[in-house]
Amino acid sequence: MLAETVYVFRHAVLRDTAYEMQLPSERAGLHAVAARAMHSHASPDDLASEIAEHARLADDEALIQIEREYLPRAGAYLQSRYQYGEALIRWLRLAEISVGGERAEALIKAGDAAGHVGELDRAEALYAGAIRQLEELGDEHGRARAQGNLAHVFKERGEMELAEKHYSEGLATLERTGDRGLLGVAQESLATLYALQRRTPEAEALYRQALENVRAVGRRISEATLLGNLANMRLFGERRDEAEPMYEQAIAIARELGQRALEGRSLGNLATLRRLQGRHDEAEKLYREALLILQDVGDRRGQGRALGDLAELLYNREEHDEAGRLLQQALVTCREMGDRRGEGLCMGRLADMYEMTGEDRKAMKMYEQSLPVQHAAGNRRAVGLVNCGLARLHARAGNGELARQYWREGLAELDQAGDTRNHAEQIKRMTSVFESAGIDPPGS
Fold it and tell me: Of the candidates 337, 365, 393, which is a domain's last residue?
């Protein structure tokens, strides 16, 4: 504390009772004294929320400026510790008491926080409000940034056409402004959308441009995420060996900068590479290391993805009980965070697990429920795998025509996704089931 003497109540109820016994005007006066006293010292960021709250409760126009000074510090501090719900409250309050560019910035930050806690509709409304404010100010640069954030919301909801429209418009604006750092970030976002749609040549070209731009201005965090994204594109193709040095570079940068959430996600990506290489013990160790980091920093979205990936590894090693438990945990986490892509992946994995353990009815229900989620997330590879799963289940149930329809649709999606490994594997699995069921595959 800043004062020389500290009074500590033995129980919170005593403290609250003493507080409530004060008249409202007296309480406001005490808050004003506290705000001014704390403001007069060099206060650390972890006290910024407390100072801002004292200033708010003082109900004194003269203290609004103190509140406006500390709310950005409070919001940034809370977000750096992944306390996005608390940060959202601070940014919304700042937007309420601010005007012009300051209000627009607070709305953008509030939208970011809302997105992190899975409130995508709220994030959309906040970004739209920021865009209107920035249009009134004639701030093209700020508008482009807010538009990119809005596009991210559309992408997360699987509204890919809207996402591409807003990403492209923001990118065009940034190309005129000459801000290479922000341009690189915008290029990365659009490239990630292309990658999700399996528009591989367009995605890779744009990732390369983005990497050149962020390196030119020394944006090391963006460099690390770009390296990870470029590596991700190689996981399911013929260039898998090129992914490893990229992941290792991303991990090294994250550690150098002390970016623990980025380190955790990058370790999870490397673990997936190890799993696909058949190096399962190494993969499990990396997944668990990634999870410890992501849990420690409070990155719930990252945790959901890592739990699902670890579950798939354990399932493939026939550790079905733990795999099922982790998948259910991952599914709950992805839903809480509004992560539609992650939710769809978890549902598809659960369905596959039910199928492999002979629970065909549960598998059918889960595959059918996951299909619209996968479509909405724009995950063509996952759509293909779900259709192939439904083809096998309908073949076992004796529904020949439906089975053949899902066979054709599943392989077409995998073709479009460029996933040659799964294409060959799914043909093998479906052919075996069709032969056992006495059903001719398509084209026979």
Answer: 365
Tally the domains of the chain: 2
Last residue of a domain, one of 365, 387, 402: 365
352 in the same domain as 311: yes
The answer to whether residues 384 and 422 touch, using CB atoms and an 8 Å cutoff, is yes
With CA atoms as reference, report the closest residue to 416 among 392, 389, 384, 387.
384
How far from 43 is each of 36, 48, 179, 316, CA to CA, in Å? 11, 7, 34, 53
CA distance 390 to 430: 10
pLDDT tens by residue, 404-419: 999 999 999 888 777 7
**Tokens 């889960």, located at residue:** 366
- The pLDDT tens digits for 233-277 are 888 667 888 999 999 999 999 999 999 999 999 999 999 999 999
140-156 helix and 180-196 helix, angle to the nearest 10 degrees = 20
CATH code, domain carrying 357: 1.25.40.10
pLDDT in tens, 2-61: 444 444 445 554 545 555 556 566 666 777 777 777 777 767 888 888 888 877 877 777
Domain span at residue 393 reads 379-444
